[in-house]
Amino acid sequence: MKNIIYIVIGTFLFAISVTLLAMPNHIAEGGIVGLSLLIYFGLGISPSISNLVIFIILLAVGIKFLPRHMIYKTILNVPLLSLFIYLTENLGKPMEDPLLAAIFAGLLTGVGFGLIYQAGSSVGGTSIIALMLKVRLGWNLTGTGFALDALVVLAGIFIIGPVYTMYTLIALFIGKLATDYVLGGFDSKKAVNIISPKIQEISHRVMNEMSSSATMFEGHGEYTKEKRSVLYVVVRSHRLLHLKRLIKEIDPNAFVVIHNVKDVSGGTFFATHHSYYGQESTTVPQNKGNNI
To answer: Out of 2.40.50.140, 3.30.70.120, 2.170.150.20, 3.40.50.2300, which CATH number does the structure's domain 189-275 have?
Structure first.
């Protein structure tokens, strides 16, 4: 039931991004929906019709090449998307600033896609064509899908013009970021690897002053042939500067590597301040759900 709710809400958000923002402001999309929008701008045919017709044609041509799970995932979403577009396509009005329309179209599309992907579904699109070309001709799936989306977007130059095509690119970029946030979480974190002769002192202060877990493991320096202790710490992004200052204060020459982390689950990365005082171990006892 949860996945169905995600699919319905995500598909609805995608639909209104098309009807309320893209259609009245001459902004296109990538994939099959983008092609449907270009048909609308060029011939006046509703995307609710062209999107469904194109999908049925692709399904009929490629059904013997497509895995059953892909058919099941799209057979609900595409008709639902066309239905939502049909119900809302007369509600949109042009905005004075097309850039604003592109930004919010990308935002709604990205959030919608994120919810659809979280439910394990999809809206079909060029991935169907890419998979057929992979099966028949052995083409690379990812590269082919990207090339097909790019062709649809570039075709917009001849229909909506270069300026609105650039607005489309802005919408696609924002949509990608929004999808990543929905899938990876808004509470971004940083993973930090620290190598230093004073690693024990750094570990102690990280746990006591930052109330953050630290995990220590042994490494081997290939150049020096020496064993070294490596400290692994995960902190929320807004605490990274505090951690860097702490490390520099203890050992200005410490070797520090910082990685972006989209999602952290399980473990004992964050706990309350009082959980750490007086503890000597490098891994903090479990205390989930608390803030640093």
So the answer is: 3.30.70.120
